[in-house]
Amino acid sequence: MSERERWIVYPLLFFALGSALRDKLLQRIVSKEIYCESLKIVDPQDPTRLLAELGSGQEISYNPSQTAGRVGVLTIQDSDGKEACQLAKDLRTSRVITNLLLVVDPVNQQPHVIAGTEQVPTMSLGYEGMGSLGSTGGTISHQGVLMLDNRRIMVRPPARRGRSAPAPRPPAPHPPAPQSPAPQSPAPQSPAPQSPAPQSPAPQSPAPQSP
């Protein structure tokens, strides 16, 4: 190998080795585009535990006459290895936390169902900056609202756990009105047995005496 070839080959060799070791030393990959079939995220404390995976899967078809295609799938698992969320053409999740939920028309994207919250001024008993006792104060609370085709649907919230609703008090018993005694007919009295009256001895005439 000539001197000129060494000045060409050796720098290219060290450049290739440096590029290969750069990601190992910096623990970071910087790239403009990445093409792969599957991207997996593992737990840093346990590399054998899979937490998330970005790949492809078969689309779930609800119409048996149509063939299901392939879609991108994002799967998130919890620490126990159970599926917590899967995002494809459909969304399957165990819990959804959101401030507003919209169901729109697939054609013109107009909302048909709205589930969210709205601000409601609460009643305050403060005295600063208030006109009268019990007027609306500055405290703002929120309450849930459900609307269907721009019509508000009234839904009674369920009773809170731990606080039982007070039972309605029975009405106080009214004292009974004074009633006049009903006239009582005299009961038939049976004749009392009469004891025979003592009879006085009849006066006896003196017997005639013979001369």
What's this entry about, in short?
With 211 residues, the chain is mainly beta.
Please give a structural write-up.
There is one protein chain. This protein is mainly β. It has one helix and nine strands; from the N terminus they run H-E-E-E-E-E-E-E-E-E. A five-stranded antiparallel β-sheet has the order 1-2-3-4-5, with no helix packed on it. It has a four-stranded antiparallel β-sheet with strand order 6-7-8-9, with no helix packed on it. A hairpin with a 3-residue loop joins strand 4 and strand 5. The longest helix has 24 residues, at 3-26. It is elongated.
The major sheet is characterized as:
5 strands, antiparallel
Q: What separation lies between the terminal Cα atoms?
A: 216 Å
The rough form would be described as elongated
Strand content: 25-35%
Secondary-structure blueprint:
Layout: H1 3-26, E1 39-42, E2 50-58, E3 70-77, E4 83-87, E5 91-93, E6 101-104, E7 111-123, E8 136-148, E9 151-153
Antiparallel strand pairs: 1-2, 2-3, 3-4, 4-5, 6-7, 7-8, 8-9
Keywords:
mainly beta; five-stranded antiparallel sheet; 9 strands
